[in-house]
Design goal:
This is Caveolin. This protein has 129 residues and is mostly helical. The protein has helices at residues 22-25, 36-122.
């Protein structure tokens, strides 16, 4: 709680795509301007509605959703620590063993054949006339 930054609540810019201001949504081009008081009142209404609605939704849904997401990421962490990572490690160990076995078989069986063909074809000389 001590390291919680109440001013910068998105330090990693995770939600830049939902940063919405009045100017990002409503804009009047030249030649189509409403009365100044309408534009100012629209600005106030937009911001008030956006902030009030967001605050009501966070009050009603923020804590339950935070609890759900906390449980979700706890389950993900648990499954990675206790299931996925050990399984991957066992798989990598077995693949390393299979790689050595397969490599040895190739060296024993195909190595001499390829070496023989290489010696046979090394005596071929091509001359351009």
């Amino acid at each position: 709680m001590a390291d919680l930054d109440l001013l910068n609540r998105d330090p990693n810019n995770l939600n830049d795509h939902v940063r919405v201001a009045f100017e990002d949504v409503l804009a009047e081009p030249d030649g189509a301007h409403s009365i100044d008081c309408v534009w100012k009142c629209s600005y106030s209404c937009f911001n008030c509605a956006k902030n009030c609605c967001y605050n009501v939704l966070t009050i009603l849904c923020g804590l339950p959703l935070a609890l759900c997401w906390g449980c979700e990421f706890a389950c993900i962490t648990f499954s990675h620590v206790w299931q996925i990572t050990p399984c991957l490690r066992a798989f990598m160990i077995n693949c390393g063993c299979a790689q050595k076995f397969f490599g040895t078989c190739l060296q024993c069986c195909l190595g001499p054949i390829c070496e023989s063909f290489g010696l046979c074809f090394s005596n071929i000389v091509v001359k351009n006339a």
